[in-house]
Amino acid sequence: MNVLKFKLLALIITGIMLISCSSRSKFTSESLSIGMTKEQVISKFGKPYKSSFTENKEAGEIKESLYYRESLNMGNRSITNILTFKGGKLVSLEQGQESENNSPFIIHP
């Protein structure tokens, strides 16, 4: 009876450990803050695999986006983190699959 309880407890603990580390992104509200500079982000997360620029001629602004891909621990899933900057400051983070309609001007670092 004690052996059965021990095996059940071991199974539960193993399941909890697998679930807890399965799919947590390193790009979270704890690791990023709106207003961070591009240099701070690159220093913290390394070089992105891709960057792009979008120009809004009417507003006279240029947005720069840095693309980071992460592999999640459960299965073969990956997620793309798109960090967008205006005036050199972080203004948004999008997570998900990269779409085909992203900015037309792309620079690969």
UniProtKB/TrEMBL annotation:
Organism: Chryseobacterium panacisoli
Protein name listed in UniProt: DUF2845 domain-containing protein
Key words of the record: Plasmid, Signal
Taxonomic superkingdom: Bacteria
InterPro entries xrefs: BamE-like
